[in-house]
Specification:
Layout lengths: L11 E7 L4 E5 L21 E3 L5 E12 L5 E3 L4 E12 L11 E6 L6 E8 L9 E3 L9 E9 L4 E2 L3 E11 L5 E9 L4 E10 L2 E8 L8 E9 L4 E10 L5 E2 L10 E9 L13 E3 L4 H4 L24 E7 L7 E8 H25 L5 E3 L4 E4 L7 E3 L1 H8 L1
Parallel strand pairs: 7-10, 10-20
Antiparallel strand pairs: 1-5, 1-8, 2-7, 3-9, 4-6, 4-8, 10-19, 11-18, 12-17, 13-16, 13-19, 14-15, 14-17, 21-22, 23-24, 24-25
Protein name: peptidylglycine monooxygenase
GO molecular function, one term: copper ion binding
Catalytic activity: a [peptide]-C-terminal glycine + 2 L-ascorbate + O2 = a [peptide]-C-terminal (2S)-2-hydroxyglycine + 2 monodehydro-L-ascorbate radical + H2O
Length: about 400
């Protein structure tokens, strides 16, 4: 958004971005560049970095679209796209950034149906001077697998007053090529207790995700991907507690409820043409109710901690924060390392310093260098600063 002012509570506002006419992928990359709005850089993706705060917005969804619903730069209402569309990211409750696995990406731009990115924000209340949004960075580097998202859930939500443990099951049968779910996200409003999603293969049930929707809502990586094959079943439910003296129904405002679980998956490039949309984007309502009866009894119990979803332990994220220039009241992540790369960088910096020290002594003219974050070098000799981007070295380190 650009200095946006809402006109009512629970306003839905969308902003569009037209992609350049070239083949692009949204996926994990390990190259980093500083962004200068006055110049044009080729930018590689580090992930989805939400530029938003839960005091302003209830949630934010990011779509790739064939056409935006409106020709305007931004518009109010719940219409998002025309033609083909796919949700690629969701955010709520100050959730952290999300990074796709290596060699997986969303294909957009030329030779795909997706020519636009549309970000839809559900605002809480009246506010002025809002600059919320989502930072996406694209890459030209090819990927071994494409990414897609299944939206699952139900509209059958009726939360009777002063009632606990209200279940809203949903189910469907998967038809399509084999896919591998590697991340998931859940969404309800304030009455949600726990959301869960399962796969049924040959009548054996496997957990995909079980999560408390009152925790920060974003995609979280799974320790082990869950493979979904043709004719498998996907089942799940949302569980609610209503302590109010009124009935709660499904709706779009924060005074209503929703039941959503997003499952992000990968599939082989040979299985689907890049010109076609991803397989199976929707699993909605209780189409195969007899299979929903297999949902385990412990699905009503929320997990004790976030890690119950089996988030990867070898991809621990180290996030450094800076004050966002447009919304200075909050901290925003700008760069993410995993643990292995963190130690590699430290070791390489030490080795580089020793090499510079030896070279300097041999030349009889020692220059003092300090390594800065992002691989920049500051030359402090003679009282001035020269910033140099050691991109080749950093790319070698972070690939």
């Amino acid at each position: 958004m650009n200095n946006y002012e809402t006109t009512k509570e629970d306003e839905y506002v969308s902003i569009q971005y037209k992609l350049s006419d070239e083949e692009l992928l949204i996926g994990n990359m390990t190259k980093y560049f500083l962004i200068n709005k006055k110049k044009s850089f080729q930018i590689n993706l580090v992930g989805f970095i939400p530029l938003i705060n839960m005091t302003n917005a209830h949630h934010m969804l990011t779509y790739i679209c064939e056409e935006p619903a409106e020709k305007k730069l931004f518009w109010s209402g719940n219409t998002i796209c025309n033609g083909e569309q796919t949700i690629i990211h969701g955010w709520s409750k100050n959730a952290p950034p999300f990074i796709l696995p290596k060699d997986v990406g969303f294909a957009v731009g030329r030779n795909t149906p997706y020519k636009y990115i549309v970000v839809n924000i559900h605002y809480f209340s009246l506010l002025k001077n809002d600059y919320s949004g989502n930072q996406l960075i694209l890459t030209h580097k090819s990927r071994k697998s494409y990414a897609g998202v299944i939206l699952s859930g139900t509209n059958q939500i009726y939360l009777k007053e002063n009632t606990q443990t209200i279940r809203t099951p949903f189910s469907c049968q998967y038809k399509g090529p084999t896919i591998s779910i590697f991340a998931a996200s859940v969404h309800t409003h304030q009455w949600g207790r726990v959301n869960s999603l399962y796969r049924v293969h040959d009548y054996e049930i496997s957990l995909i995700i079980k999560m408390n929707p009152q925790n920060p809502q974003s995609f979280y990586r799974l320790l082990l991907p869950v493979e979904i094959k043709n004719n498998d079943y996907i089942i799940g439910q949302c569980v609610y507690d209503n302590n109010l003296d009124k009935t709660i129904h499904i709706g779009e405002t924060h005074n209503d409820e929703m039941c959503n679980i997003y499952a992000m998956y990968s599939y082989n490039l040979s299985q689907k043409s890049i010109n076609n949309p991803p397989p199976f984007p929707l699993c909605w309502d209780n189409a195969v109710s007899q299979m929903a009866n297999l949902i385990p009894e412990d699905s009503i119990i929320p997990p004790l901690k976030l890690n119950y979803i089996n988030q990867t332990t070898d991809d621990e994220q180290y996030i450094s924060y800076v004050k966002h220039s447009m919304n200075s009241s909050r901290d925003l992540p700008i760069k993410i390392f995993n643990q292995q790369n963190y130690f590699i960088i430290i070791i390489t910096i030490l080795i580089s310093f020793l090499i510079l020290l030896i070279i300097g002594r041999c030349m009889g003219n020692l220059q003092y260098f300090s390594y800065m974050r992002h691989g920049d070098i500051i030359n402090r000799r003679k009282g001035f600063q020269i910033l140099k981007q050691s991109s080749d070295q950093e790319n070698d380190l972070l690939d």
